[in-house]
UniProtKB/TrEMBL annotation:
Pfam family, any one: TPR_TRAPPC9-Trs120
Annotated ranges, domain Trs120/TRAPPC9 TPR region: 78-213
Phylogenetic placement of the source organism: Eukaryota, Metazoa, Chordata, Craniata, Vertebrata
Protein name as catalogued: Trafficking protein particle complex subunit 9
Signal peptide start and end residues: none
Superkingdom, natural source: Eukaryota
């Protein structure tokens, strides 16, 4: 058999070729950051033409958002997410719906859209107790609702509600507090429910209607 000789100078201590010309050639064939996103857009447009490719289309959107988040291109990432919201995935189980909304929430948080993130987490919370679920998950619902508080500029510390320093949309905040009251009561924790209701009266009294009071 013919002996194959290897030039020791051609290898580094890691066994990788010291000749960088091949690496340079490989780099030339790599897509630029802009080209990567264009390829994602092209793929998603193709997937969108097929009724049964919804899951693949959604996966491509999610991957594109993560790439754009690394590139700090939040506005473009939000466009991919907006598309992801309307992708038809057919008949999903309640658990799959919760997972979908939770993922959307995480991705919006990743690109700094905190209020959008809170909105989809709240949708996920409501999905945990949908009428079609035989055993509604009130504990999971309550936990998810708590996680939406920062997105709605809401704190459960009364000290953060000194006179004239209110932040955020009071109407949405009151709705969220009502949901915490209801969820804690359905969890079988009336003490926690009263605590949230007392907090609502203490901090939101000026925003309540006469009927609401």
């Amino acid at each position: 058999a013919q002996e194959v000789l290897i030039d020791p100078g051609a290898l580094t201590t890691n066994g990788i070729s010291a000749d960088t010309s091949t690496e340079i050639g490989r780099a030339k064939n790599c897509l630029s950051p802009e080209d990567i996103i264009e390829k994602y857009k092209e793929a998603i447009s193709y997937y969108g033409k097929y009724k049964n490719a919804g899951v693949i289309e959604l996966e491509a959107c999610v991957k594109a958002v993560r790439v754009l988040a690394i590139q700090k291109r939040a506005r473009e990432a939000s466009e991919f997410l907006q598309n992801a919201v309307y992708i038809n995935l057919g008949q999903l189980s309640e658990e799959e719906k919760i997972q979908r909304y939770s993922i959307l929430s995480e991705l919006y948080e990743l690109i700094g859209f905190h209020r959008k993130s809170a909105f989809f987490k709240r949708v996920a919370a409501m999905q945990c107790v949908a009428p079609t679920i035989p055993e509604p998950g009130w504990r999971a619902c309550y936990k998810l609702l708590l996680e939406t508080l920062p997105g709605y500029s809401l704190s459960l510390d009364p000290k953060d509600f000194s006179k004239g320093t209110h932040r955020g949309w009071a109407a949405v905040q009151m709705r969220l507090l009502h949901e915490l009251v209801y969820a804690s009561r359905r969890m079988g924790n009336p003490g926690l429910s009263v605590r949230h209701l007392s907090f609502l009266l203490q901090t939101m009294l000026d925003f309540l209607s006469d009927q609401g009071q």
